[in-house]
Write a structure and sequence with these properties.
With about 230 residues, the protein is mainly alpha-helical. It has helices at about 5-15, 50-75, 85-95, 95-115, 125-135, 140-150, 200, 205-215, 220-230; strands at about 155-165, 165-175, 185-190. A three-stranded antiparallel sheet has the order 2-1-3. The chain binds manganese (II) ion (MN). The site of manganese (II) ion has 7 residues, from α2.
């Protein structure tokens, strides 16, 4: 690192200035983790998820995780890693602050891309349908199992449809935890059951919200594409 670079880094660390680039531990200019764009308009999932909920959930909560993460990793070894690797490395290191914000950043992008406006999500591919039938007996049973996991997750967390070893399964995780830290697991779909995901629209009726998210907003096209890439 040059003297000038060091000076810039010090100024940024003190003033958290936005105009100057952040630096990694090795003094290289850091590529910040970005808040990925929503794949639809903020009102596109209404009435199941209102534009008001998305304005807070995406614009405040998700954006907040990204901003906090960039502040935490500036000047550290994490700053040169892609997001997925930051999640895995911080989990392995037991760095809870970095992990929570990195995992929440990843989980939310995955969540937004699990969903599509009602009527546009399509149907599971033939390959995914076969795997769903093998694992759950039917698509309806798969949806019911995922909804059950989402409703039973105590407190904040996530319910996931995953592929592992060529088979499908349902898991739920607390808080920011995410299946991408487990080798060989590919998440296919997720439901966010933090209260910020539904409370403005549904208050305490998590079960009703979850049923409509899975039943009306799931993008089976996106989920099938993820399964095809396993
Ligand atoms: Mn959320």
């Amino acid at each position: 690192m040059t003297r000038k670079d060091f000076a810039l880094q010090s100024v940024c660390a003190v003033a958290a200035c936005a105009a100057l680039p952040a630096f990694s531990a090795k003094g290289k200019p850091m590529k910040e983790i970005e808040l990925e764009k929503l794949p639809y308009a903020e009102d596109a999932l209404a009435p199941v998820i209102s534009a008001n909920t998305i304005s807070f959930h995406y614009g405040k909560h998700h954006a907040g995780y990204v901003k906090t993460l960039n502040g935490l990793i500036a000047g550290t070894k994490y700053a040169e890693l892609p997001l997925v690797e930051i999640v895995r490395a911080s989990a392995a290191d037991g760095n809870a602050a970095v992990f929570n914000n990195a995992a929440q950043t990843w989980n939310h992008t995955f969540y937004w891309n699990t969903l599509a406006p009602a009527g546009t999500g399509g149907e599971p591919s033939a390959a995914l349908s076969a795997a769903i039938t093998a694992a759950f007996g039917s698509l309806e049973a798969c949806k019911a199992a995922l909804a059950d996991a989402a409703v039973k997750r105590f407190g904040s967390g996530w319910a996931w449809l995953i592929a592992e070893g060529g088979k499908l399964a349902i898991v739920s995780t607390p808080n920011a935890e995410t299946p991408i830290v487990r080798a060989g697991v590919t998440p296919l779909a997720v439901v966010d059951v933090w209260e910020h995901a539904y409370y403005l629209d549904w208050q305490n009726r998590r079960a009703d919200h979850v049923k409509d998210v899975i039943g009306k907003l799931f993008s089976w096209k996106a989920i099938s594409d993820r399964f095809a890439a396993v």
